[in-house]
Amino acid sequence: MNEDEKNLAEYKEACAEERLNAGLLFGQMTVYLVAMGGLLQIAASKPTLWVLPLLGMFVSLAFFVIGERCGDFAHAARERAKNIEPLLGFALYTSAPKAKIPWATRINATRIVFVGGFTGWLITGLLHWLPCLFTYQN
Fold this sequence. Notes:
By secondary structure, the chain is mainly alpha-helical. It has one domain. The chain contains three helices and no strands. The protein is elongated. The protein starts with a helix and ends with a helix. The model has no long low-confidence stretch (mean pLDDT 91).
């Protein structure tokens, strides 16, 4: 295998990895939203379960970390593909249009959802736990 064939194989692998991680990110978002919907359903039917906000915060934090790692791998694969493109005479990633809003990315969108979910469960927990703390009697 000559150098061009190796670069082409690595380029194809990097592109496939980037697409895989992009798809995984939205798959994770789907599973997260389903999990949050289930927790909200339980919270609506059993509002006295004090552990639900903790569980919601834990799930939100776990999915945030998973999303960050997935985004890291997607960015690394994209950067590798960009580095190989000049060697092959390609311009798929290097000529991609710039975002109209630089911070409006798929990673930031998922961050907003996960942080929003965490914040919502934190507020729910505080609203549930604080009255219990102030009314606790020996």
